[in-house]
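Fill-in record for Immunity protein Imm1.
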Amino acid sequence: MTATDTATVITVVFHSEFHYARTLEEVDALVRRIVEDPPRPVCAVYVWDRPCRGHFEPGGPAFPTGRLRVSTSPATGWGALNYVDRDRPDGALVDSFNPDAGPATPVLPLDTNGIDFPASASLPLEKVREAIAEYCRTGARPTCVQWQLGEWY
């Protein structure tokens, strides 16, 4: 599935700021924004057949069952991922996993409420970029990174 051969819409939400992508060029630009210049350190990425809607939009909130949450820190070169989709067989709540994480691996925020990823979820930004792009193409949990059980939705 790609944004050009289906009616797929990528929605990225930075807090309450919604961004949409429908073409490959728009998806590439949105992935770059998440990794290189995010307006907030944490966002949620949705792949659906229509744009997601927020609480204050006509018709109320509308989101698919799957989500990739992304935390990036361009200044440090690290990011982390959280995936869940209760409608898919591989949809268990998981965080990215870095088997090489050590004492110097940074801890990144999982959300804006003070909950953090474990340091073992932190990955180099290029790996995070690759995973986001894969998710946008497939709508499924990225296979280019390893995963561990997650604690927080």
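KEY FINDING: The beta strands are 9-14, 17-21, 42-48, 66-73, 78-85, 94-97, 123-124, 146-149.
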